[in-house]
Amino acid sequence: MKKIKFNWGTGITVFIALFLLANAFVIYKSFQQKNDLVAEEYYPQGLEYQKQIDRFANSNSLSAKIVIADSKDGLVITYPGELKGKNIKGEVIFFRPSDENADFHDSINFDTAMIQLIPHHMLINGKYIAKFFWKMDGKEYAHECYVRVDK
């Protein structure tokens, strides 16, 4: 049996073969990744971002922030007192960064104690970004906060 000589030509061939195998593995793994977009139409949203900044500023001018707490029944959302008795039109979106199928939308609908309950069965365990958008007294408002759901 003939021994293979390890010279510079053999070294280059082995290096190129390993390099090509590593690239093939990286390409294979990249096709296995999900790449969901945060928004399908992100360019028009970027053009309207100054309006969004104004909505956040309006929300920050309220006397209190929207507070989300976990309870045995679900997520308890407590709204600021200024919203009481007002004609509010808006929605709350629980945006799941890792899985767009786990997103949850609901309208803002609080009781006389300024509380809205989101039952646990509507959400799955993990991190969400709670996004609130509403209109009140001719102004638009927006608020965002992070929420961790642990059932």
Structural commentary:
With 151 residues, the chain is an alpha+beta fold. It has one domain (42-149): Sandwich (Immunoglobulin-like), CATH 2.60.40. It has helices at 8-32, 42-47, 49-60, and strands spanning 67-70, 74-78, 89-95, 104-107, 115-119, 126-136, 139-149. The strands form two sheets. The chain has a four-stranded antiparallel β-sheet. Strands 1-2-5 form a three-stranded antiparallel β-sheet, with no helix packed on it. The longest helix has 25 residues, at 8-32. The protein starts with 7 loop residues before the first helix and ends with a strand. The model has no long low-confidence stretch (mean pLDDT 89).
Essential attributes:
151 residues, alpha+beta, Immunoglobulin-like, four-stranded antiparallel β-sheet, three-stranded antiparallel β-sheet, 3 helices, 7 strands, 28% helix, 31% strand
